[in-house]
Design brief:
By secondary structure, the protein is an alpha+beta fold. It has 10 helices and 13 strands. Keywords: Plasmid.
């Protein structure tokens, strides 16, 4: 039996009830809510999303009198009421719903989607991880939007939460999926294929949400490039920009003991010509200085168009592209950098 719902979401271990089963029920237009004693606090088109949100909020309790959050299916006629205890339906089932009441389900549907709070780390639709600053005001008939650092808004339903507990949950699920694939006796069977798809989705999420996984993916080609120049290169450590958690280069060590020296290789696989130094901090400091000063950037190239650019948005430009900066290949490389770093401020 699959452990994910129809929307490819996984329930948290501390989620109450059976949200996967609730999602699998034949209710294509169902809306689920997160509720407290005073009423509805958030709506979702997915039971697992609602259950996970309730569990997350309950886990953030700091005071004894903090509200307790539950989740459940909402009434199809009164979007702010639980289906199994709708007070409006119970009050007078025979009474015809007024025109205003008839609009309520549409308003509730327009507000469906995950709810993010200030400080949440989220993976946006472009695959870039950002920090949420809260939800934008709801607009009837429009999907919910989340505001991220810098003021940009993204459709909340297209974003995924990437806090530490979310990343750990996906790591745990991916390990379980890998074990199931190893145990299944018939590769290519429907169950094997479904589990492989789950694992692929987990790894795709971790590539963007987990800085350690993302660093490891660019680490391998960088290591190979460094070892082509220094065969004994080892002990690679990421070099992070001050305003990002994505590595732009790695320091590495050559030799051992008193003969140990340190250099830098970029994520594009180019060994920096800053040379080798006695300490890794020295190599990193010189590399950062080269990024920020005394080099031609795309922005200041207008002052001297004859000189090829050396960096783009703080990222060293491969030598093969710097001399052909106006070609399609260079444009594709710039798009890749923009996708990683996000929109310009």
């Amino acid at each position: 039996m699959s452990t994910r719902c129809l929307h490819h979401r996984y329930a948290r271990a501390d989620a109450a009830g059976d949200p996967v089963a609730a999602c699998a029920a034949d209710r294509p237009s169902a809306t689920f809510g997160v509720l407290i004693e005073e009423g509805l606090t958030a709506t979702f088109g997915c039971a697992v999303e609602a259950a996970n949100e309730a569990a997350r909020l309950n886990g953030r309790h700091d005071l004894p009198d903090d509200p307790f959050f539950t989740w459940g299916l909402l009434c199809a006629d009164h979007g702010d009421q639980p289906a199994d205890g709708c007070t409006e339906c119970a009050a007078d089932n025979a009474k015809e719903t007024s025109a205003d009441d008839g609009e309520q389900p549409a308003e509730a549907t327009s507000g469906t989607g995950p709810r993010f709070v200030d400080g949440d780390r989220i993976v946006c639709a472009d695959g870039v991880t950002r920090t949420a600053r809260g939800m934008a005001p709801s607009v009837p008939g429009e999907p919910e939007h989340v505001i991220v650092e810098g003021g940009t808004q993204w459709i909340a339903a297209n974003c995924r939460r990437a806090n530490r507990e979310d990343i750990l949950a996906v790591h745990e699920h991916s390990r379980a999926a890998a074990e199931r694939i190893h145990r299944l006796p018939h590769p290519g069977s429907p169950e094997w294929a479904a589990t492989l798809t789950e694992l692929d989705e987990d790894l795709h999420y971790l590539k963007t949400a987990d800085p350690l996984v993302r660093s490891a993916l660019v680490n391998e080609p960088a290591q190979q490039a460094a070892r082509r120049v220094h065969p004994d290169a080892h002990q690679f450590q990421p070099v992070m920009p001050e305003d990002s958690d994505q590595a732009v280069a790695f320091t590495f060590r050559t030799g051992y003991g008193a003969r140990a020296r340190y250099g830098v290789v970029t994520v594009q696989g180019e060994v920096s010509d800053v040379g080798l130094f006695e300490y890794p901090t020295t190599a990193e400091r010189i590399f950062r200085r080269r990024l920020s000063a005394n080099e031609t950037t795309v922005e200041n190239r207008q002052e001297d168009p004859s000189r090829p650019p050396v960096q783009y948005r703080g990222i060293p430009i491969p030598a093969a592209l710097a001399g052909t900066w106006d070609t399609g290949a260079a444009a594709q490389w710039r798009k890749g950098v923009d996708a990683v770093l996000g929109p310009r401020p």
